[in-house]
Amino acid sequence: MDPQWRVEKRYHGSHDPCPPKPRAYIVPPNQYVTFQPQGIKQWSPREAIRHGVLWPELFSPYAPMDKEVRS
Amino acid sequence: MVHIWIYEKKLQYPVRVSRCDPRLAKYLLEQYGGADGELAAALRYLNQRYTIPDKVIGLLTDIGTEEFAHLEIIATMVYKLTKDATPEQMMAAGLGDHYANHGTALFYQNAAGTPWTATYIQAKGDPIADLYEDIAAEEKARATYQHLIDMTDDVDVKDTLTFLREREVVHAIRFREAVELIKETKTQKSVY
Fold this sequence. Notes:
heterodimer; A: alpha+beta; two-stranded antiparallel ribbon; 11% strand; B: mainly alpha; Ferritin; 7 helices
């Protein structure tokens, strides 16, 4: 799992009705970029389209939480 | 007036949910953020206190506070029924539009997804009018609990809902006593 995910093991009561699902949220790398840097590395256009972002430093997986956390 | 609430970190009545049924959570929201729900009740009574005759202020404080305890009970049931639901399960339970806006978070809205509004409650500044609204609110909440009980076969949920229904009945009786108290004249002897 991508380390950008924060997974929290929640209390699950012995009588809770549904099978447990961990709580997770993502903290993407832009949260750590306070000022926009200049001249950072760029992907090629084809790579950028595939990743959904031009800059590798700002890449976040964008995968659905359930699939990401359960895998 | 000085008011202090003391919070005890436990529910007024235990909550156990034995079936994984997220659809029931949708229906329970009627008592969370609905017109006759617990939030509306608590805010209605606690707000009316300031202009109600002195001898029934304490009653409104007690019942308004208990409604917050009931709000927590409903919230706990909704949470248990939705906290482990996937987006697919939320959609299958009719909670797709809820998930689009709130994920699995709780929100003050009714079973149909209409957000809570202060237009659900009234403070008329007339003690008879206010107390009759309160009696009506309790009877409507009792009827809502009956509907919810009729819609589930989860015996543990039924147990908690039955307790809440009973409390609405008790509150309605107390409010009707309050009407008798404020109707009394100084020379009349109280029969209570």
